[in-house]
Design goal:
alpha/beta; globular; binds pyridoxal-5'-phosphate
Length: 434
């Protein structure tokens, strides 16, 4: 088999570093193995870099490519619709069609606004919750990633478990310099999956609380599922105190089901955010919610704007992605392939006597090295052996399997059983050699 080398990427990175700060356009890309890689082409479940290395892609560009790379239906639709124009700074019919689709599919989607990305849609949701309740703060959970903007740039980067502070009042570590210090006071922070702690904290602070925001599955750190009754418990607490329940479905939307995690877990939030898989890699996201909450936008009391919102190509991308998903209904297959892969990885780890913990849902799951039998919250994730994971991810990469550096795997509708079997075969070899 061809030995993977990265010399062309390395020299492009050098050139790139002279013009792009750090050589990249998003901080996460800097941390790729063995350094930021330059890609030339993606098709289906495969991606090729400039050194001619071919990968089975389980990173799917951090999640968006639910149909795999370069889906022909989506590309044709975008080309066709972009010939009419790119951006009208006005309304167009496909925008209504897309909104109607979301309204039909997503249980809580009574009214919708489109944005460009997850981060800005999440901030819009918070603004709605503050306006409606007249309260200022929100409650969020350690390790949940809700974008990179100021008030979300805390509580996701503790250096070590000891630095986390008490569970009832966790330390807030900044992920970046340059944050306004006041932004650390916009929210209360708690460990996830601890309903009695949430209940206690809300009972003491509800007069200040506009919203509770959570990923329905803690995808970004350990792919942790909600404990039994946790999401339902949040729903009840929010109802009791008149607080908005916000689901960040940026990852789970169109991935765990066509109607999101809210349908999968049968817990309906007041507001939710859909992004990544909705647009097959084009910049479009949606804030959807109950009319009772979204009316503050409808009435113009809350401002949501954006020059680039709902450009023709992005709407066409989302509309055709969802149409393909509706037609193909790939979910059963994605779960089956994902479960087969998770099972194969567990077996490979057991055979190699490696403490690889595999957990998640199927369409997305996480691999990390730990002696824990289950990772239940962010505090547990800090016990993962990150060096060992780095070696695993690197060795998989050198053998043509691309996964996200923090151990996350995504399955797309374009993955085939052969891709799964190949990934298991490579993992067997890598784990034995480690
Ligand atoms: C759960 C979650 N929420 C929000 C975001 C932010 O979305 P975006 O990168 O589109 O701003 C991300 C991005 O990875 C995410 O995973």
């Amino acid at each position: 088999m061809k030995k993977y080398t990265y010399s062309k990427s390395a020299s492009l990175l050098e050139r790139s570093q002279k013009v792009l700060a750090g050589g990249v356009s998003s901080e996460f890309r800097k941390k790729s193995y063995p350094h930021a890689i330059f890609y030339e082409q993606g098709k289906g479940s495969r991606i090729w870099d400039v050194d001619g290395n071919e990968y089975i892609d389980f990173s799917l560009s951090q999640g968006p490519l639910i149909l795999g790379h370069s889906n022909t239906n989506v590309l044709n639709h975008i080309n066709e619709y972009s010939r009419n124009g790119q951006l009208f700074a006005g309304q167009h019919i496909k925008e209504i069609e897309l909104a109607e689709k979301l309204q039909n599919l997503i249980p809580s989607a009574e009214l919708i606004r489109f944005c460009l990305d997850g981060s800005s849609a999440i901030q819009t949701a918070l603004r709605v919750a503050r306006a409606k309740t007249g309260r200022q703060k929100f409650l969020r959970f350690e390790g949940h990633y809700h974008g990179w903007l100021d008030n979300m740039c805390w509580g996701i980067s503790a250096p070590a478990p000891e630095a986390l502070g008490p569970r009832e009042n966790p330390s807030r570590h900044p992920w970046s310099e340059g944050l306004p210090l006041e932004s650390r006071n916009e929210f209360l922070l708690l460990p996830w999956n601890d309903l009695s702690l949430v209940r206690h904290t809300v009972a003491q602070n509800y007069e200040k609380l506009a919203a509770i925001i959570t990923e329905p599955v803690m995808c970004n750190n350990g792919c942790i599922l909600p404990g039994d009754g946790f999401l339902q418990g949040l729903r009840e607490i929010c109802d009791e105190y008149g607080i908005a329940l916000i689901f960040d479905e940026v990852i789970t939307g169109f991935r765990v089901s066509l109607s999101g995690a809210q349908q999968y877990f049968d817990v309906i939030p007041d507001l939710s955010i859909f992004a990544k898989a909705m647009g097959s890699g084009y910049p479009i996201s949606a804030l959807v919610g109950r009319r009772k909450w979204m009316e503050v936008i409808e009435e113009g009391r809350v401002i949501h704007a954006g020059t680039m919102n709902t450009s023709n190509p992005t709407v066409a991308a989302a509309l055709s992605t969802i149409e393909v998903l509706e037609r193909q209904l790939p979910y059963e297959r994605m779960y089956q392939l994902g479960n087969q892969l998770m099972h194969g990885l567990k077996e490979a780890a057991a055979d190699a006597n490696q403490n690889l913990l595999v957990q998640g849902l199927g369409p997305m799951f996480h691999t990390g090295f730990t002696d824990l039998e289950e990772v239940k919250d962010y505090r547990d994730t800090l016990k993962y052996d990150r060096n060992k994971l780095g070696k695993f991810v690197g060795a998989m990469h050198d053998n043509g399997i691309r996964i996200i550096g923090r151990g996350l795997w995504y399955i797309s509708a374009s993955h085939k059983e052969a891709d799964i079997l190949r990934a298991i075969e490579v993992a067997k070899k890598v784990l034995l050699e480690m």
